[in-house]
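Hallway conversation turned thread

IA: we were arguing at lunch whether anyone had actually written out 4-deoxy-L-threo-5-hexosulose-uronate ketol-isomerase end to end. Turns out nobody had. So, for the record, here is the sequence (278 residues) and right after it the structure tokens. Reply here if something looks off.
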Amino acid sequence: MEQRYATNPEQIPGFDTQDLRDRYLIEQVFVPGQVTAVYTHQDRIVLGGAEPAGHELSLPTFDELRSDFFLQRREMGVLNVGGDGVITVDGTVYEMPSTACLYIGRGARDVVFTDARPDQERGAQFYLFSAPAHADHPTTLALPGDGTVRELGDQKTSNRRTLTQYIHEGGIRSCQVVMGFTRLHEGSMWNTMPAHTHDRRTECYLYFDVPQDARVFHIMGEPERTRHLVVADRQAVISPSWSLHCGVGTAAYTFVWAMAGENQFFDDMDAHPVTEIR
């Protein structure tokens, strides 16, 4: 498990491009046949990936958590961004087609990730997002088409997008995890407009379905002193509570958003008009 310590906005002016990437960008979320994990001290979130690649992968008990098993004091949201897969939680089997989401509650001991079929062109890729939990909530599956769907943006401003909420106050219940995904419509490239901060939560993005020859320019930092990260397909960004977040791609793409922190109010955000961003 890689550990990344919390940063503050006063450090940003001294960071060069590589410093920013080292602290906020996770370049390799998915490794065939492995479970990866990054522990960020921003709200003590763990994020990572599980890519079975024809094997059975068990969720490890990482020494850094100092626990008897991974979810002893934690909860987890899992969203499949690859081909069809299966997750088995304490003997219960959950079929996970692409973009399905599984909430796994505190106390689950044995979590196993597998592919659904060996002959599919792309295997399953499970994106993992975990935060500390103070109560037990039942493990719950949401299939594509479930969840709360919100249509946002406008084609005129190149940010028309469909947002699906899975784990949130009005959907799958959790202690503090909020999770879903957003798909940009063809011809739209801007996400998360108007740009904003969440001073009470950390948010992490996993960009996927980014064409091989395309990139997303993820804007971060303080609104009056922004920086950017150039992000490729299936790479993740850690966005601290004080950091602005929005982005634009060279083609349409999809991203998983997930948050943890003070509350679960999706609309709890501090908007920053584009005319005031520098």
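OS: looked through it. The chain has a mean pLDDT of 96.
IA: good, adding that to the notes. The two ends are 36 Å apart (CA to CA).
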